[in-house]
Write a structure and sequence with these properties.
Number of helices: 2
Oligomer: single chain
Strand content: 35-45%
Radius of gyration: 20 Å
Distance between the termini: 75 Å
CATH architecture: Beta Barrel
Shape: elongated
Structural class: alpha+beta
Number of strands: 5
Order of helices and strands: HEEEHEE
Length: about 120
């Protein structure tokens, strides 16, 4: 009876592991949005996994600064240009259920598109 119960628990564990596998492998989008403001800085950091971070304020005089992750290398020069010229921009971002250590740490979202406002 004891071995039958052990087999049953083992089978339940394998089924639970198999069913949760997509949550750990497939990046599931949990949020998307838009932030209008000014890019104050863009930096690359990390020891093993170099990640890019962008700092954004709603207005240049605001004390609140939001932090975003950047994984698309085509967006990085646009963000750097916006930071240097103090240009007003629209940032489009997404958030995933699982990002991975190589992508982002604790940032509030991942910037996917930058549109300058004239």
């Amino acid at each position: 009876m004891r071995t039958l119960f052990g087999w049953f628990l083992g089978l339940l564990f394998v089924i639970a592991l198999f069913c949760s596998f997509p949550l750990w492998v497939v990046p599931y989008r949990t949020a998307s949005g838009e932030h209008t403001g000014y890019v104050t800085a863009v930096e690359q950091k990390g020891v093993f996994f170099k990640t890019w971070t962008a700092y954004v304020k709603t207005s240049p005089t605001s004390s609140q600064e939001d932090v975003y992750c950047v994984i698309d290398h085509a967006v990085i020069p646009q963000l750097q240009q916006a930071a240097q010229s103090n240009q007003h921009v629209d940032l489009y971002f997404v958030d995933w259920l699982k990002r991975g250590v190589q992508n982002c740490k604790g940032e509030s979202g991942i910037i996917i598109k930058v549109v300058p406002i004239n």
